[in-house]
Design goal:
about 120 residues, alpha+beta, about 20% strand, elongated
């Protein structure tokens, strides 16, 4: 076992307070938040069960692990919530001045679409 791995190997949690493993050294049954999300799960209010420590850019990096058997299924938005999100995104693309729905989000710094914020000179 390399020195770095040995420094981060604490499966009992005596040194770091919770079970600690090195990079790619965690036993099966544990997953990070991203791994849970990829599997369609979420932590579901459970506390952090373990952690992974490794040497990274800028010092020691940490990834928290959750137990997969205690993870809950990921919640999905209801049809009403999806409709509300769609209306909110449409409102972000609607110009307050000309009331047109643009294919881009209206910049908050301008408060109106680019056509209204930067009027074109008449070429007459």
């Amino acid at each position: 076992m390399a020195r770095i791995r040995a420094a981060f190997h604490d499966p009992d949690g005596t040194r770091y307070g919770i079970p600690t493993y090195w990079w790619k050294g965690a036993p099966p049954g544990y997953a990070t938040r991203r791994q849970l999300t990829a599997a369609g799960l979420r932590p579901g209010g459970q506390p952090v069960a373990a952690q992974i420590l490794w040497q990274g850019v800028g010092g020691t990096r940490t990834a928290y692990l959750y137990r997969m058997d205690l993870a809950a299924p990921k919640r999905t938005a209801t049809p009403a919530q999806r409709a509300a999100i769609g209306k909110a995104l449409t409102a972000r693309r609607t110009c307050r001045t000309c009331h047109q729905v643009r294919p881009y989000f209206i910049p908050r710094s301008l408060g109106e679409c680019l056509a209204c914020a930067i009027p074109q000179e008449d070429a007459a």
